[in-house]
Amino acid sequence: MTDSRYLKRTIVKEEIESRYLGEKRTLRIYLPPGYNELLSYPVVYCQDGEEFFNFGRIATTANRIILDEGAEPFIIVGVQVDVSVRTQEYAPFGDRFKAYTSCFAEEIIPYVEEKYPVRRSPQERVLAGDSLGGSVSLHLALLYPDLFTRVISMSGAYYSASQEIYAAAEDLSWLSIWMIVGLQETAFEADTGTYDFVQLNRDTRDLLEKRCALVSYQEKDGHHQWGFWQKELPEALLYFLQEN
Fold this sequence. Notes:
By secondary structure, the protein is α/β, with parallel strands linked by helices. The protein is built from nine helices and ten strands. Pfam families: Esterase.
């Protein structure tokens, strides 16, 4: 049975007007137990924000690891996406990719940092995503290394267009990435085709390690779905947010 302390969550909805996307974008902000505006907090930015909260149960998980497992209190920002244009925003070949990544780095980050006491060093920001959300998180880090150096990638959709971009990088020694993929993801049907996500993740791991990135990589029994990723979220978050 879930401890009732884990369910007492403070989640605020915000809305920003994006000039890059030409529309409003909703954010869900999780504030940790004992939140105090006079303190400062690390921050986790999630692609597919609503799914992280609704299916990943990230707020409940955050409460638990903060209260019971030694995680430093942190803030979560879930960035909503319209699933009908998700691939266009998250994939580097999408026609909204540049607008989305610009909105994320140049509008969402300043908005959050103006309104909430989040820390502003790259080591105190974590990007998190599943599938294409994982790959766009890595793209954001490569596009804005002065902002992002830490990435959580769950079953990243590392298509060839993404791998070509990673391969063009020379030195990624500044990057730390936590990766996991399910062993049952060898023939996943996406909107752009059928892919072996295990091989895509292995190849991407190799690309990153050859460029001196710090990679924590795992393969476990699991399918391309939140039932798998939800169980792995605590370990992913603690990898970056465990208090020493």
